[in-house]
Amino acid sequence: MKMDRYLSFGGVPVRFQVFRPLGDTKNRVALIASPLLSIEQYDRIIPSLQEKGNYCVVCDFPGFGPSSVRDRVSVGQAAKMLWGVLDEIDKEEGGRLYCWHLVGHGLSCRAVYEMIRLSPGSVASMAMLCPVFTSGRALKSQGFMRFVLRAVSGRGSFARAARFLYGKKLPEKEWMPLRRNFNRPGVRENIISILSQESDPQENALFAPQMVIWCGRDAVLGGQISPDIKKRLPDGEYHTLPTAGHVPMYTHAGAVRDYLRGWLGSNGS
Question: In degrees, to the nearest 5, what angle opens at C-alpha 244 toward C-alphas 242 and 249?
Answer without folding.
Answer: 130
